[in-house]
Specification:
Blueprint lengths: L11 E10 L2 E11 L5 E4 L6 H9 L6 E6 L10 E4 L10 H11 L4 H14 L15 H13 L5 E5 L7 H16 L3 E5 L3 H7 L2 E6 L2 E7 H6 L4 H7 L6
Parallel strand pairs: 3-7, 3-8, 5-6, 6-7
Antiparallel strand pairs: 1-2, 1-4, 8-9
Helix pairs in contact: 2-3, 2-4, 3-4, 4-5
Protein backbone atom coordinates (compact mmCIF):
# COMPACT_ATOMS: atom_id res chain seq x y z
CA UNK A 1 0.00 0.00 0.00
CA UNK A 2 1.46 3.36 -0.99
CA UNK A 3 1.67 6.34 1.35
CA UNK A 4 -1.16 7.98 -0.60
CA UNK A 5 -3.39 4.92 -0.07
CA UNK A 6 -2.52 4.43 3.58
CA UNK A 7 -5.53 4.66 5.86
CA UNK A 8 -4.98 4.83 9.62
CA UNK A 9 -6.86 2.38 11.83
CA UNK A 10 -7.21 4.82 14.72
CA UNK A 11 -9.42 5.90 16.28
CA UNK A 12 -11.47 2.73 16.57
CA UNK A 13 -15.03 3.71 17.44
CA UNK A 14 -17.77 1.42 18.73
CA UNK A 15 -21.29 2.81 18.54
CA UNK A 16 -24.06 0.85 20.26
CA UNK A 17 -22.34 -2.42 19.32
CA UNK A 18 -24.16 -5.59 20.28
CA UNK A 19 -22.88 -9.12 19.67
CA UNK A 20 -25.22 -12.06 20.12
CA UNK A 21 -24.61 -15.79 19.79
CA UNK A 22 -27.79 -17.85 19.65
CA UNK A 23 -29.82 -16.40 22.53
CA UNK A 24 -26.86 -15.04 24.48
CA UNK A 25 -25.79 -11.39 24.43
CA UNK A 26 -22.00 -11.21 24.65
CA UNK A 27 -21.56 -7.48 24.05
CA UNK A 28 -24.46 -5.19 24.88
CA UNK A 29 -24.68 -1.70 23.34
CA UNK A 30 -20.98 -0.92 23.69
CA UNK A 31 -20.03 2.66 22.85
CA UNK A 32 -16.29 3.20 23.11
CA UNK A 33 -13.44 5.04 21.40
CA UNK A 34 -9.91 3.60 21.27
CA UNK A 35 -7.40 6.31 20.41
CA UNK A 36 -3.64 6.48 19.97
CA UNK A 37 -1.39 6.75 23.01
CA UNK A 38 -0.54 4.61 26.02
CA UNK A 39 -2.05 1.11 26.29
CA UNK A 40 -5.78 0.68 26.77
CA UNK A 41 -6.44 -2.12 29.24
CA UNK A 42 -9.70 -4.06 29.31
CA UNK A 43 -10.55 -5.51 32.70
CA UNK A 44 -13.51 -7.35 34.13
CA UNK A 45 -14.54 -10.79 35.40
CA UNK A 46 -14.39 -13.87 33.22
CA UNK A 47 -17.22 -13.84 30.70
CA UNK A 48 -17.52 -10.05 30.71
CA UNK A 49 -16.88 -9.76 26.97
CA UNK A 50 -13.21 -8.75 26.85
CA UNK A 51 -12.14 -11.31 24.23
CA UNK A 52 -15.16 -10.62 22.04
CA UNK A 53 -14.47 -6.89 22.14
CA UNK A 54 -10.91 -7.55 20.99
CA UNK A 55 -12.14 -9.81 18.17
CA UNK A 56 -14.63 -7.19 16.98
CA UNK A 57 -11.98 -4.44 17.14
CA UNK A 58 -9.61 -6.65 15.13
CA UNK A 59 -12.32 -7.35 12.55
CA UNK A 60 -12.58 -11.08 13.29
CA UNK A 61 -16.18 -10.85 14.49
CA UNK A 62 -19.06 -8.76 13.21
CA UNK A 63 -21.53 -6.89 15.39
CA UNK A 64 -25.09 -8.16 15.45
CA UNK A 65 -26.19 -4.54 15.82
CA UNK A 66 -24.49 -1.18 15.98
CA UNK A 67 -21.49 0.14 14.13
CA UNK A 68 -17.69 0.08 14.32
CA UNK A 69 -15.26 2.24 12.35
CA UNK A 70 -11.49 2.29 11.98
CA UNK A 71 -10.09 5.73 11.26
CA UNK A 72 -13.57 6.75 10.12
CA UNK A 73 -13.89 3.80 7.70
CA UNK A 74 -16.41 1.00 8.13
CA UNK A 75 -14.73 -1.54 5.85
CA UNK A 76 -11.01 -1.08 6.45
CA UNK A 77 -8.98 -4.30 5.91
CA UNK A 78 -6.94 -5.31 8.99
CA UNK A 79 -3.59 -4.79 7.29
CA UNK A 80 -2.16 -2.76 10.16
CA UNK A 81 -3.82 -4.61 13.02
CA UNK A 82 -2.50 -7.71 14.80
CA UNK A 83 -3.80 -9.90 17.59
CA UNK A 84 -2.22 -12.42 19.97
CA UNK A 85 -4.53 -14.84 21.73
CA UNK A 86 -4.08 -16.31 25.18
CA UNK A 87 -2.93 -19.66 23.76
CA UNK A 88 -1.15 -18.95 20.48
CA UNK A 89 -0.63 -21.80 18.04
CA UNK A 90 2.99 -22.50 17.16
CA UNK A 91 3.88 -23.67 13.66
CA UNK A 92 5.87 -26.92 13.46
CA UNK A 93 8.97 -24.94 12.57
CA UNK A 94 11.92 -23.34 14.26
CA UNK A 95 11.50 -19.95 15.91
CA UNK A 96 13.11 -18.03 13.09
CA UNK A 97 10.97 -19.85 10.54
CA UNK A 98 7.81 -18.93 12.48
CA UNK A 99 8.74 -15.25 12.24
CA UNK A 100 9.90 -15.58 8.63
CA UNK A 101 6.53 -17.10 7.72
CA UNK A 102 4.71 -14.19 9.39
CA UNK A 103 6.85 -11.69 7.49
CA UNK A 104 6.06 -13.40 4.20
CA UNK A 105 2.34 -13.43 5.03
CA UNK A 106 2.55 -9.70 5.81
CA UNK A 107 4.06 -9.02 2.40
CA UNK A 108 7.46 -7.92 3.68
CA UNK A 109 9.92 -8.01 0.73
CA UNK A 110 12.04 -11.16 0.62
CA UNK A 111 15.35 -9.27 0.87
CA UNK A 112 14.28 -7.72 4.20
CA UNK A 113 13.02 -10.87 5.93
CA UNK A 114 16.25 -12.29 7.36
CA UNK A 115 17.30 -9.01 8.97
CA UNK A 116 13.78 -8.28 10.20
CA UNK A 117 13.51 -11.78 11.68
CA UNK A 118 16.66 -11.14 13.70
CA UNK A 119 15.36 -7.74 14.83
CA UNK A 120 12.05 -9.15 16.01
CA UNK A 121 13.62 -12.09 17.86
CA UNK A 122 15.96 -9.61 19.56
CA UNK A 123 13.04 -7.36 20.52
CA UNK A 124 11.28 -10.20 22.35
CA UNK A 125 14.46 -11.61 23.88
CA UNK A 126 14.62 -14.76 21.75
CA UNK A 127 17.69 -13.97 19.66
CA UNK A 128 19.41 -17.09 20.99
CA UNK A 129 16.45 -19.34 20.10
CA UNK A 130 16.36 -18.91 16.31
CA UNK A 131 16.96 -22.60 15.51
CA UNK A 132 14.96 -24.05 18.40
CA UNK A 133 11.65 -25.73 17.46
CA UNK A 134 8.86 -23.37 18.47
CA UNK A 135 6.81 -26.10 20.12
CA UNK A 136 9.66 -26.87 22.51
CA UNK A 137 9.59 -23.39 24.03
CA UNK A 138 8.13 -22.70 27.44
CA UNK A 139 4.74 -21.00 27.71
CA UNK A 140 6.29 -17.60 28.26
CA UNK A 141 8.71 -18.08 25.38
CA UNK A 142 5.89 -19.11 23.07
CA UNK A 143 3.98 -15.98 24.02
CA UNK A 144 7.02 -13.88 23.18
CA UNK A 145 7.40 -15.63 19.83
CA UNK A 146 3.71 -14.97 19.13
CA UNK A 147 4.37 -11.29 19.84
CA UNK A 148 7.26 -11.30 17.36
CA UNK A 149 5.01 -12.86 14.71
CA UNK A 150 2.30 -10.26 15.36
CA UNK A 151 4.80 -7.43 15.09
CA UNK A 152 5.90 -8.78 11.71
CA UNK A 153 2.83 -7.01 10.33
CA UNK A 154 4.27 -3.69 11.53
CA UNK A 155 0.87 -2.96 13.08
CA UNK A 156 -0.55 0.36 14.15
CA UNK A 157 -2.68 -1.50 16.70
CA UNK A 158 -1.76 -4.64 18.66
CA UNK A 159 -4.48 -6.54 20.52
CA UNK A 160 -3.40 -8.88 23.32
CA UNK A 161 -5.77 -11.31 25.03
CA UNK A 162 -4.57 -12.25 28.53
CA UNK A 163 -0.93 -12.46 27.39
CA UNK A 164 0.45 -13.25 30.86
CA UNK A 165 -2.22 -15.68 32.06
CA UNK A 166 -0.63 -18.69 33.79
CA UNK A 167 2.89 -17.24 33.48
CA UNK A 168 5.28 -16.95 36.41
CA UNK A 169 6.35 -13.48 37.63
CA UNK A 170 9.60 -13.44 35.66
CA UNK A 171 7.87 -14.36 32.39
CA UNK A 172 5.12 -11.85 33.14
CA UNK A 173 7.63 -9.05 33.61
CA UNK A 174 9.32 -9.92 30.31
CA UNK A 175 5.99 -9.70 28.45
CA UNK A 176 5.12 -6.42 30.16
CA UNK A 177 8.53 -4.99 29.26
CA UNK A 178 7.90 -5.89 25.62
CA UNK A 179 4.47 -4.26 25.73
CA UNK A 180 5.99 -1.07 27.11
CA UNK A 181 8.76 -1.10 24.51
CA UNK A 182 6.28 -1.60 21.67
CA UNK A 183 4.03 1.13 23.03
CA UNK A 184 6.96 3.55 23.27
CA UNK A 185 7.55 2.97 19.54
CA UNK A 186 4.07 4.31 18.75
CA UNK A 187 2.10 1.08 18.46
CA UNK A 188 -1.30 1.30 20.14
CA UNK A 189 -1.65 -1.69 22.48
CA UNK A 190 -5.07 -2.88 23.63
CA UNK A 191 -4.72 -5.59 26.25
CA UNK A 192 -7.30 -7.69 28.08
CA UNK A 193 -6.33 -8.89 31.53
CA UNK A 194 -7.89 -10.04 34.78
CA UNK A 195 -4.78 -8.92 36.71
CA UNK A 196 -5.32 -5.55 38.40
CA UNK A 197 -1.60 -5.26 39.17
CA UNK A 198 -0.81 -5.62 35.49
CA UNK A 199 -3.48 -3.05 34.64
CA UNK A 200 -1.93 -0.58 37.07
CA UNK A 201 1.53 -1.11 35.59
CA UNK A 202 0.57 -0.82 31.92
CA UNK A 203 -2.60 1.16 31.42
CA UNK A 204 -3.01 4.66 30.13
CA UNK A 205 -6.75 4.07 29.85
CA UNK A 206 -9.00 1.53 31.54
CA UNK A 207 -12.20 -0.05 30.27
CA UNK A 208 -14.18 -2.06 32.84
CA UNK A 209 -16.58 -4.58 31.31
CA UNK A 210 -19.33 -6.48 33.10
CA UNK A 211 -22.00 -8.67 31.50
CA UNK A 212 -20.99 -7.43 28.08
CA UNK A 213 -21.41 -3.74 28.90
CA UNK A 214 -18.87 -0.98 29.48
CA UNK A 215 -19.37 -0.09 33.13
CA UNK A 216 -16.67 2.57 33.31
CA UNK A 217 -13.89 3.90 31.09
CA UNK A 218 -11.32 6.65 31.35
CA UNK A 219 -7.79 7.37 32.47
CA UNK A 220 -6.13 4.71 34.57
CA UNK A 221 -5.07 7.25 37.19
CA UNK A 222 -8.64 8.41 37.75
CA UNK A 223 -10.04 4.89 37.66
CA UNK A 224 -7.71 3.60 40.36
CA UNK A 225 -7.93 6.67 42.61
CA UNK A 226 -11.50 7.89 42.05
CA UNK A 227 -13.65 5.13 40.52
CA UNK A 228 -16.98 6.60 39.48
CA UNK A 229 -19.24 3.54 39.67
CA UNK A 230 -20.23 1.12 42.38
CA UNK A 231 -19.16 -1.80 40.19
CA UNK A 232 -15.67 -0.34 39.75
CA UNK A 233 -15.29 0.23 43.47
CA UNK A 234 -16.38 -3.35 44.19
CA UNK A 235 -14.07 -4.77 41.53
CA UNK A 236 -11.10 -2.83 42.88
CA UNK A 237 -11.92 -4.06 46.38
CA UNK A 238 -11.68 -7.65 45.16
CA UNK A 239 -15.40 -8.37 45.37
CA UNK A 240 -17.11 -10.63 42.85
CA UNK A 241 -19.25 -8.97 40.21
CA UNK A 242 -22.21 -11.26 39.66
Amino acid sequence: MSAAQYMPDLPIKFSEVRVRANDTTILDRVTLTISSGAPTVLIGPNGSGKTTLLRVAMGLARPSDGNITWGGQQQLPPLRRAIVFQRPVMLRRRCAANVHYALAAAGIPRHRRAQRTSELLRLVGLEGFAVRPARRLSGGEQQRLALARALAREPDVLFLDEPTASLDPAATKTIEDIVQAVSSQGVKVVIATHDLGEARRLAGDIVLLHRGSVVESGSAERFFTQPATREARRFLAGELLL
